[in-house]
Design brief:
mainly alpha; two-stranded antiparallel ribbon; 4 strands; about 5% strand
């Protein structure tokens, strides 16, 4: 899978120019339409959650069974994550029944946007997140992101939570 890298301070001027030339403004945000990492980052930002790759764990809400505490707009966040998932779906051959190993650096944005969507969906409606977390485990059996803990039949289903 081709990865569109978001430019950073270490990116070349050529990369910055190419990225910005292909970018559009959506919702006041400059975005390369195929930059999956940006969709995930915007989704977490609008939700008021840190990016899942951040060093600090999101603050958990004890009243919501260990769910991350949402401080932003869940609907807008879900819309950004869903848009990223749509871009991913259009990037893969149909029907896609293969794996996308997380070990391949170019595949990581796909996992991050899927995980962002599944996590936000879990916050909105926990009954609808299971297929997304299951798909993440199927796509990457090594499951670097921990989707197995949220998928039905995963470790959290087999072992009771400590009291």
């Amino acid at each position: 899978m081709e990865r569109i890298w978001t430019p950073d301070q270490d990116s070349s001027e050529k990369h910055h120019t190419a990225y910005h030339k292909a970018s559009v403004t959506i919702g006041g945000r400059l975005l390369h339409p195929r930059d999956l990492d940006s969709y995930a980052a915007f989704a977490y930002e609008y939700a008021g959650l840190d990016d899942e790759d951040a060093d600090d764990d999101p603050e958990l809400d004890e009243d919501d069974q260990g769910q991350p505490r949402l401080t932003g707009d869940l609907e807008v966040a879900l819309a950004w994550a869903a848009a990223g998932v749509c871009v991913l779906q259009q990037s893969l051959p149909h029907p896609f029944r293969d794996v996308l190993r997380y070990a391949d650096t170019d595949n990581r944005p796909a996992h991050r946007v899927l995980f962002a969507y599944a996590l936000l969906l879990r916050i909105k409606d926990p009954a609808k997140d299971a297929p997304w977390f299951t798909a993440l485990v199927y796509l990457n059996p090594n499951d670097i992101l921990g989707a197995r803990f949220c998928a039905p039949g995963g470790p959290s289903d087999r072992f009771p939570e400590p009291v």
